[in-house]
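I trust your eye. Have a critical look at both lines of this record:
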Amino acid sequence: MQSKMRIGLYPGTFDPVTHGHGDIIRRACALVDRLVIGVAINRDKGPMFTLEERVEMLKDYTAGLAEDTGCEIVVHPFENLLIQCARDVNATIIIRGLRAVADFEYEYQMVGMNRALDNTIETVFLMADARHQAIASKLVKEIARLDGDISKFVAPEVEKRLLEKFTG
């Protein structure tokens, strides 16, 4: 008897993708057979990078991970409700990364709403590795804008793209 494929959805804006995101992606791959990275369009956040740029950076960032982890990785842009995106990609698990207690409060509310919308989709929280708990895309952009060293927080391709945004 063939077992059902475990599909997880890891949503975010990824503006830009950081090593913190990469840590969650790698660890999520141990839990599922296919990991869909949902790139939120979210116009309210006013992302620095276009949707196409964020999708491309994620594809570059995860290129070797599928082979390393044995997990199929798909990058999928979405603009609808998270729970609807999960349904669209047949995910039974939503994966969320947590950095701090402040993250948990917001995420706790989201889980409650998502469970009310569809109680067949579980949410799994992965605590960020201690080395990555302070990394936030917003802070990385601020450090780059002020000409600080962001090489510890993002991949070289992402660093290059960020610096290009600030130097024109």
